[in-house]
Amino acid sequence: MDQENEVSLGKFLRESREKHNYSIEKLSLKTRISPSVIKSLESEEFESLPSPAYLKGFVTTYVKVFSLDESAAFKKLVDTYEKKTGNSFPSLNHARKYETTKRERLEEPSEVINNSENIFDTIKPMIPYVIGVFVLASGFGIYKLASNKINNEAKSYKENNNIEDETSSESTDLNSSGTELTSQVPPSSSLPTEQTPAAPEVLMSPEVKQETKPVTKTEEVKAKEKKEERSSVKSEKRLFPHIDFKPIIGPLYTPKPDAAENKDESLMPSSYKAKIDSGRQNLYVNAASGETWVSYKVDGEPIQNEFIREGKALFLQGEEIRMFFGNINVTKIFLNNTFIDGYTKTGVKTLIFPQENAPKYLRPLFPKSANGEYFTAEEYREKMKEEESKAGNP
Fold first, then answer.
1. How far apart are CA 263 and CA 354, in angstroms?
2. CB under 8 Å, gap of 24 or more: what pairs does 360-363 form?
């Protein structure tokens, strides 16, 4: 057996990923396999993984990304699984070296996902057309139903009141002004009967008639709609879209002076402990068990964005430090040489040093504008208000 075949599954997968410069998060986005499953595969922790049928699917999806030999990868899966668990890998018809027919072969979990996506991609372009046809058909049906009802009521009204066809010219004039037809025909319950005399015509001066014409109301509505359209266009092009900011409520972290981490030189070397400045906030962030990104601002300095890889650290000093973590749970953080616990279920976390300054600020701490530029919450709110004020002008 050559040296390549002796490499275990986990090492084989991890080396393939690192060779192609893929992080676990990037591979997770590419394959839709959760980061925890990828880590367990590479660590060969089979007890925390799903059934062997899914293991085969995960491995197949993994190696396809890097165009690796599926048969070799599956053999490593079987060998490594049996060595690690002490149990034989369940039979999945692999003894026939994948010579099953299309009718007999079961789809892998990854293939089920991909096939479902292909079907949806085929149908997706047709959805707008189907909706459009349905809306047009519904609108036409409602229009015909309303027209028939209006015509029948108008006809009955003419017959009951002995009105000649020439009187329809008044109705035509009203309709040509832009007012909807349904507004010119009263409901049947309000139509005058033979016993009810028609209301006398009210004479008005030309000025009054001009002010009370339905066309004036229609023009006002159109003007309002145009104004709303202009506001809508402006809002689409806004550089600072609306954000609902929220107050930062503490406590944000808990100091742990008696924690074992304080004595672990691998987490915070003594060389950095010696750099402590008693007049400032001294912060040491170690990405001990994974990768994380962080945005931070020290005093009046510009906002910085860093991606801290596993095993790397960030050291900051300042009178005030504001930080926003993307995956704080993989870090070990020391404030003034003391370990602090900032664990959160999601891994997303806002921290303010010193902690008592937190009420002065809002979440999100560093919002990003439409062009990708980062701002503090205070700066963003001011620019957002300015833009909203301008958008409200005609």
1. 23
2. 361/248, 361/322, 362/245, 362/246, 362/247, 362/248, 363/245, 363/246, 363/247, 363/248
Sign of the alpha-carbon torsion through 319, 325, 329, 331? negative
Measured distance CA(46)–CA(59) in Å, rounded: 13
Q: Using CB atoms within 10 Å of the CB of residue 333, give its burial: 0 to 12 exposed, 13 to 18 middle, 19+ buried.
A: buried
d(CA 16, CA 63): 8
Q: Could you say which DSSP state residue 291 is in?
A: -
**Which residue pairs, CB below 8 angstroms and at least 24 apart, start in 177-183?**
177/213, 177/214, 177/215, 177/218, 178/214, 178/215, 178/218, 179/214, 179/215, 179/217, 179/218, 181/150, 182/146, 182/150, 183/214
Burial string for 99-126 (b: 16+ CB within 10 Å, else e) reads: eeeeeeeeebbbeeeeeeeeeeeeeeee
Domain boundaries, the chain: 3-106, 246-388
The Cα–Cα gap between 146 and 150 comes to 6
At which residue do the structure tokens 């510009």 appear?
302
* Torsional sign, CA 120, 123, 129, 134: negative
User: Comparing C-alpha atoms, which of 75, 17, 67 is closest to residue 42?
Assistant: 17
pLDDT tens sequence for the chain (394 residues): 444 557 888 898 999 999 999 999 999 998 889 999 999 989 988 888 888 878 888 888 988 999 988 888 888 889 888 888 888 887 654 433 333 333 334 444 444 444 444 455 556 667 777 787 777 777 777 767 766 766 665 555 545 544 444 333 333 343 433 333 333 334 444 434 344 444 444 444 444 444 444 545 577 777 777 776 665 545 457 899 999 999 998 899 999 999 999 999 999 999 999 999 999 999 999 999 999 989 999 999 999 999 999 999 999 999 999 999 999 999 999 999 999 999 998 999 999 999 999 999 999 999 999 998 999 999 999 999 999 888 775 4
Domain 3-106: assigned CATH number: 1.10.260.40
Give the C-alpha distances (Å, rounded to integers) separating 29 from 4, 35, 135: 28, 9, 37
Token output for 59: 């491995």
